[in-house]
Amino acid sequence: MMVAGAQALELKKQDVDALNVFPVPDGDTGTNMFLTIQSAARDAEKATGATISDIAAAASMGSLMGARGNSGVILSQLLRGIAKGLDGLAAANPLQLALALQSGVDTAYKAVMKPVEGTILTVARETARAALSKAKAGGSLLETLQEAHKKGLESLAKTPDMLPALKQAGVVDAGGQGFLIILGGWIGVLTGETTKVGFQQEQRPTAETPHSEEHSQANQGFIQIEDLEFPYCTEFLVQGSDLQVDRIRQDLFDRGDSLLVVGTPEVVKIHVHVKNPGKILDYAIQWGSLHQVQIHNMLEQNEAMAHAMKSKSAESAESVETKAAPMKEYGVVAVAMGQGIADVFLSLGVDEVVLGGQTMNPSTEDLAAAVGKVRARKVLILPNNGNIILAARQVKDVVLDREVYVIPSKSVPQGISALLNLNPEGETSANLQNMERSLKNVSSGEVTYAVRDSQFGELAIAAGDILGLVEDTIVETGQNLLEVAKATLEKMEWKDRDLVTIFYGEDTELHEVERLKTWLQEENSNVEVEVHPGKQPLYYYIFGVE
What we know:
The chain has 23 helices and 16 strands. The protein is α/β, with parallel strands linked by helices and 546 residues long.
């Protein structure tokens, strides 16, 4: 569920970013919350135990370590409280989950020195209240979360009435919006519609907010300011032993505003707006070592934003097109064999997609051209096909102005698995190790057809037969698409795994897709099934099992 929540916010983080209002947030709320929930999801996937308690605890620590900005820290506290509520449980029923949500709200409120209504706190509180009411009335897990989501949306729509800055800007609270998108991702796990859930509903409270980039920036009521009492946004981690969270919070109470002090006896996250960041750091270093120190001058950010908005209307379309995007640390180029698959990669943060695959392998030149378009110091290539890996490895001999690395993904599912293990803030060696290691965690399969008569082992194959492949090896042949698909998945031992991802091809009829999905759910409803229109040629299905 953590992964689904992260993926949901990844798709909509820019829309949430567009809700940011005066003075200047610590960063982009959507991006900050996404990085926080992504860190939680990454640690949840690595949890050594299989109980909901183990997974929630891992997610809690991951969110603390990866928390960014005000809303990200509050989100981490919501997850921390949820983990407390689930402590010791192997699994959770609707009431236990609702109580855990309430525990999350309680923890988040305690973490904020001066809670403000009309923010993520308000939305989370009303969400938990609705979940508890529905669960006590006998609602199922899905019904409980859906009711919570519904009431959360109603609360979100009221946030402009609670905060004048929101009303002036004509938007709802960004943190509350991000939280509901994550909750929508959780609901999607239960409904099997993780790529669709929640996004239409979440637009309703912000229906009056234009969606184009130009309007979202220029018409949301931005206000330029001349002075701030506490202009430096300061956040960092303190690592040590026997850290006293309550005492640290009390010691910093009068040092600035927007204070958040959260954590454990071993790790504490501090976020505060101050006049002099040095004094805060001098105080904190008495407790332990400092990590991930970030200091931003909010007046400077505000001035830059105001200047950009004033000059935007005077810029011609030509000048906008010629502006170079800022250079980032990591960029990704992926190869995809269908537009639907390309869209999935782009939604997950890939910078450039090269269309290609079986029968149309891109050349080294094609891949080098794509790498050249990416504004990043280090570019990772996901070939997603064994026949493209060698060509990809030659790119580093052609492109000399940046570092190029090839993750040897042999299939689309492997490529997606690797991509989800990329940490934008991580060390290169760790990223390469984690991404390559993730390739072993997913099994790949395809269903296609034979173009000629042949013999493969004990399988006699006739032209036109339906073929099932696992890891590029033919394992099944037949005349019926559904039966071959079933047999292929059985060879992949899908019932013993957690997730089946299906990309259906451009020639696959929708009723065939629905029949396969229904069979999977009837055979084992505990395995999550995701279905995407891959639109790939030649292959009726591409399967990923993990």
